[in-house]
Amino acid sequence: MTAGTPLRILLAEDEDAMRTYLERALTNAGYEVVAVDRGTAAVPYLEREPFDLLLSDIVMPEMDGIELAQRCAEIAPRTKVMFITGFAAVSLKASREQPHAKMLSKPFHLRDLVLEVERMFEDRREASL
Q: Which CATH number do you get for residue 66?
């Protein structure tokens, strides 16, 4: 995607098949991906490593994606947030509580996910040209 350092994405998705699918697709698109199965597992990564994007499911055990995004804003305010969800009502709540976060509703095509990620970082890509 960019010349130089690839974007670093922290993926929090509790569903094994979806997490594997997304991790593989994003890695194939040229991103560096760290994937975890819950929000509580993502927090330590945010505390010790820089990420360009937090890509999180909203409905997860222990800590939902909205709470994770709030912790991310405290720990790593420069990290952008994108939610993925299959629940329309949950996406409305997320939009209210995290108005700057991008929302992608399941089901979606992997091409759409990659395009949305690229769109979020267009300014960075243009700056590196």
A: 3.40.50.2300
Report CA-CA distances (Å) from 116 to 13, 41, 49, 98, 106: 18, 25, 23, 17, 14
Classify residue 56 by burial, with Cβ atoms within 10 Å: 0-12, 13-18, 19+: buried
**pLDDT tens per residue, range 7-39:** 999 999 999 999 999 999 999 999 999 999 999
Per residue, what are the HEC states of 103-127? EEECCCCHHHHHHHHHHHCHHHHHH
Instruction: Judge whether 2 lies within some domain.
Output: no
Site of tokens 């994108």: 82
Give the C-alpha separation, 84 to 91, whole Å: 8
**Residue type at 71?**
R
In a domain, 3, yes or no: no
Q: How far is CA 42 from CA 1, 50, 72, 82, 114, in A?
A: 24, 12, 9, 14, 21
